[in-house]
Structures are given as C-alpha cells and as structure tokens.
Amino acid sequence: MKITVIGTGYVGLVTGACLSEMGNHVVCLDVDARKIEILNAGGIPIHEPGLQELVRRNAAAGRLEFTTDIPRAVAHGTLQFIAVGTPPDEDGSADLQYVTAAARNIGRLMTDHKVIVDKSTVPVGTADKVRAAVADELARRGVDLAFSVASNPEFLKEGAAVEDFMRPDRIIIGTDDERATLLLRALYAPFVRNHDRLLVMDVKSAEFSKYAANAMLATRISFMNELSRLAEALGADIEQVRVGIGSDPRIGTHFLYAGAGYGGSCFPKDVKALARTAAEAGLPSKMMAAVEAVNEEQKLVLVRKIVAQYGEDLSGKTFALWGLAFKPNTDDMREAPSRVIVAELLRRGATLQAYDPVAADEARRVIALDLGDEKPETRDRLRFVSSATAALAQADALVIVTEWKEFRTPDFEALAQALADRRIFDGRNLYNPALVRGFGLDYRSIGRS
Ligand code: NAD
Ligand code: UDX
Fold it and tell me: Which part of the chain is the UDP-glucose/GDP-mannose dehydrogenase C-terminal domain (predicted)?
C-alpha cells in the first residue's frame, strides 16, 4: 500500500519504518528539515533500540522515504497517518494546532480519495475537527472529493517501540466507514497474524481508549508511589508488597513499580488533558487531579531524602547522578524526573556529576533551557561526565534516577571506596538493601526502610 506518515518523531518514524518492513511504500513527512536531513543521510534523530537497522534496510530497499515536500507527501499515500505532536496547552488541554495544520495540508492538496488516520493522541471529537478542516480546504478550492477519517491511537512504549509496534497487544481502529475499515484491516493483518488483536470500534471510543489506558497506567504508578510513602513510614517494604499484590491476576505484575515519579511525553500530558476534558464536560476528575499531584510530589522524593540527611544547604556537597532519561533505553528527556531533581539540588548549592548512557546530549540541551534564569555559577555546578565511574570521582553520595541495565550490578566495594559519605539514594529500588549495607554503604531507597 502507499502510505504517508505526517510527523516523523518517535511515533511517526517507528510507524513508517514498521509499515515499510511489511512491504508498504511509506513516505515520512516532517516540517523539521534537520530531522529529515539526518534520516536521508542514513542516521536516526532519536535513540530507539532496533530502529536504526529497520530504517536503513527499508530505506535501502526504496520502501521508506523521508521528505519535507508537503505536496509530494500528500500526493503519495492512499492512507495519510497524522502522527504529529499534541503537547499540552497552557490550560492542560491537548494543543491541536499541528494536527489541524496537517489536516489542512491534506485538504489543500489532495486530488484523490484519502483515508486520513489520526495516530496522534487526541481528545474525543478530534476526528470531527479533522474532517471539518479538510472539508473547509476542499470547499475553498471548490473541489468535491470524498475522504475518510479514522482514529488509530498508538500504544507503543519508548525504549521498546519497534517490538511493541511489530507485536502489539492490540490495535484499535475507530471508524464509521467501510472503506477505511477494510484498508486498515488489510494494512495491519501482518501484525496480528496469530491472534486477532485488531479491535474495531466507533471513532470516539477509540479516541477515548487511548486516554483511558494512559490514565489507568499513570494511576497505578501514583497509587504505588503513595503506598510506598506509607510503607516506609510503617516499616513495610514496598517491593515485597508489590510482589504480594501483583500475583493476584486481577491486579497483575506490570506497572506496579514505585520510583522517582513518572515522566515522558505521554503520561503527564495525557493525565492533564483527560482532566481538562472532564472539567469541560462538567464532570471534574478527582482521580486525575490526585494522580498528578502525587506524581509532582514523587519527583521530589529523592530531594527530600537528601535534604533530610544533609539539610537545606547543600553547598560543598557533590553528588554523582546516574541516569537522566525519563526511563531506560531512550534519549527522551520530556518531563523526566531528573530535570526536577537537578534543578532542586543545584538551587540548594550542590555540585552534580551526571551520567546517562544515551541521553546526555539531549539532557544538556533541555536542562540548559530549564536553568535559563539561573546564575552561571549555579549552572556551572552541573557537569556531564562520560561514564558511571567518572560520575563517582570525589562524590559524597550517589543518586540513582533511571534504571539503566548498566547500573544494576555495580562493584559495591568500589562504590563504598569512591563515595566519601558511603551513601546511595536510589530512586528505582535497584538493589537488595541487605546486600548493599553489607558493603558498609548507607542505602536509601523508595518505600523501604
Ligand atoms: P514528536 O514530537 O517526537 O514528533 C512529532 C513530529 O511532528 C515532530 O518531528 C514535528 O516536527 C512534526 N510535525 C509537527 N507539525 C507537523 C506538520 N504540520 N507536518 C509534518 N510534521 C509535523 O512526537 P511523538 O512523541 O512522536 O508523539 C506524536 C503523537 O503520538 C502525540 O500525540 C503523542 O501523544 C502520541 N504518542 C506518543 C508516544 C510516545 O511514546 N512518544 C506513544 C503513543 C502516542
Ligand atoms: C507510555 C505508555 O506505556 C504507552 O502505552 C503509550 O503509548 C505512551 O506512554 P512511555 O511513556 O514510553 O509509554 O513509557 P512507560 O514505560 O509507560 O513509562 C512511563 C513512565 O512511568 C516512566 O517515567 C517510568 O519510569 C514510569 N513507570 C513505569 C514507573 O514509575 N513505574 C512503573 O511500574 C512503570
């Protein structure tokens, strides 16, 4: 099939690459010329396991192309996927300006029937807005062309995006249109060969399912984070509690990890957007407000532990920071808890030596923006180093923010020697407390005393 993907970010690029892998001819469009240049030069602009090989292979086969040429992209695809960003507006609602711009481009330039597929995470009712924008552009041109609009929300996780797309738990298609249903069923058939995991529903339910899924997952995490505070106060161990409840199939083992708070490009903004939608519908969500409030507090949990130990004034203290990305296996720094932790520790006078296996460049960029108003002497107390060991040099204590695999089994003896205060603040519960303490280290983790 001929496919156009509009927006070549985390979702658009993975979608384009995976669809081309199944033999489709895909053109990926972006307005960011730098991204397209990198892709046309054989690179990829993000870190995502397995994606580079997939892109290279399919680009070499001529099935995957990258362009900034809007007329060419609109002319190419029978199916036009919209995978542009939907960041939060000032009031928390999803900003649909990029979705609308993409829809208008299609309406302005299309000359044959198009199936327009909303893959971006968009509020209920957006398909109607896309339909209206396309119809408006066609009317301006005085052209009468039929088109379909479908919803196909994406459920991939960063760091496992290719795997999630190639072997999805489910694919949701929201459509009220026979032609769109047939085309999308055919397109996705190779991805659901062994199990019928393709769910066709009405458009609004499909749009809503995406927010419902992310809100449910974020709720689990905030609930566990709240329980972890209580566990700590009561002398229970949240890791044992997690196993104790997760073995109940009604609860399940996934997404029950207490930590330094959830981040990323989806949960924070989707929780806010759902709260906004609920308020607009006259049904304010107490749950979403609580999920968000707990998460905001949780991003400060490591800072609170550090302050409890050393006091508010951290000048003269040096901390090694392991992990900056919002989760492992990605270089995405959007809403990463590390950004809050870095700002709060610097503000209290600490010196930081930060290491992340892949997110350092992106972290340098976004943290520079975060600290834009700070004095140079504050900003200069943050140094990025190129290894986990280098971060420990002359450090008083270690702070673990992201659970990269390379942090999982460190040389504890070397840690005890390197850290002046022999102390670890672990925001991801990577180690067995008894084991670490056996090396003479003071070990503070989440929800465990
Ligand atoms: P992103 O910021 O990585 O990529 C969006 C891209 O769209 C950018 O490269 C931008 O330049 C481009 N763009 C903007 N306007 C355009 C236009 N008019 N024409 C062409 N390109 C345009 O965003 P993302 O993380 O890929 O997210 C995209 C959507 O998918 C969002 O709605 C998000 O909520 C949703 N989503 C994201 C994830 C994820 O893990 N990142 C997972 C599921 C769903
Ligand atoms: C999420 C959804 O999982 C995915 O289905 C959707 O398409 C996009 O949003 P993503 O943001 O890439 O994916 O990562 P995810 O693995 O969900 O983690 C999100 C955040 O929650 C991370 O900061 C992670 O550290 C945190 N998390 C996750 C926890 O704190 N505890 C957990 O048990 C799981």
Answer: 320-433
Q: Are 90 and 230 contained in the same domain?
A: no
Is there a single domain that holds both residue 56 and residue 191? Answer: yes
CB distance 5 to ligand 2 below 6 Å: no
* ipTM of the complex model: 0.98
Sheet-wide strand order for 198-201: 64-67, 25-29, 2-6, 79-82, 114-118, 147-151, 171-174, 198-201
pTM for this entry = 0.96
* Ligand 1 centroid to residue 11 C-alpha, Å: 6
Pocket lining: 217 vs ligand 2, CB cutoff 6 Å: yes
The residue among 433, 424, 238, 431 whose CA lies nearest residue 322 is 424
The atom number, within ligand 2, closest to the CA of 255 reads 33
Mutation probe of ligand 1 site: the residue of 10, 95, 158 with most atoms within 8 A of C-beta: 10
CATH assignment of the domain containing 120? 3.40.50.720
Q: Rounded distance, CA 150 to CA 177, Å?
A: 8
Do 228 and 169 lie in a common domain? no
What separation in Å is there between the alpha carbon of 350 and the centre of ligand 1? 36
Shared domain for 289 and 183, answered yes or no, is no
Is 266 catalytic? The answer is yes
pLDDT digits (tens, 9 = 90+) for 317-340: 999 999 999 999 999 999 999 999
**In which domain, by residue range, is 440 found?**
299-444
Instruction: Kindly provide the residue ranges of all beta strands, DSSP E only, lying in 361-413, ordered along the sequence.
Output: 382-384, 397-400
- Domain end point (choices 145, 174, 201): 201
